Amino acid sequence: MAKVKQWTGGGKRGLHLWCPGCDAVHGVTTDPLGWTWNGDVEKPTLSPSLLTNAGKAHSTAPICHCFVRDGRIEFLSDSTHALAGQTVDLPPWPYGDQ
């Protein structure tokens, strides 16, 4: 089952994934000049790390800093949600083909 959802638009391509720490979608651009991706939707690996809400632009959302490697999400200790410092399986994309 796919754990990331590919998207295209505005001359760009990227991925969305469901973050269990934030209980929200995170997205990255893979082309042009974005994150590298191994091309696997079931065991994705992205590089470099993902860092969301670092400036606290969304005051009620956590800061999330993680690596996605081989279908697992490694939350770094500077994340501010309950999964900080833990590694868990990346959940399946929850929205089907949407």
Order of helices and strands: EEEEEEEE
Radius of gyration: 13 Å
What would you call the shape? globular
Strand content: 35-45%
- Which percent range fits the helix content? under 10%
Largest sheet: spatial strand order: 4-5-6-7-8
Helix-and-strand structural type? mainly beta
* Continuous helix count: 0
Sheet of most strands: 5 strands, antiparallel
Q: What ranges have pLDDT less than 50 throughout 5 or more consecutive residues?
A: none
Number of DSSP E strands: 8
What is the rounded distance between the termini? 14 Å
| Average of per-residue pLDDT values | 93
Structural commentary:
With 98 residues, the protein is mainly β. It has strands at 4-9, 12-19, 24-31, 36-37, 46-52, 64-69, 72-75, 87-89. It is built from no helices and 8 strands. The model has no long low-confidence stretch (mean pLDDT 93).
At a glance:
The protein is mainly β and 98 residues long. It is 0% helix and 45% strand.
Which short descriptors sum up this protein?
globular, 0% helix, 98 residues, mainly beta, three-stranded antiparallel β-sheet, five-stranded antiparallel β-sheet
Write the layout of secondary structure elements.
Blueprint: E1 4-9, E2 12-19, E3 24-31, E4 36-37, E5 46-52, E6 64-69, E7 72-75, E8 87-89
Antiparallel strand pairs: 1-2, 2-3, 4-5, 5-6, 6-7, 7-8
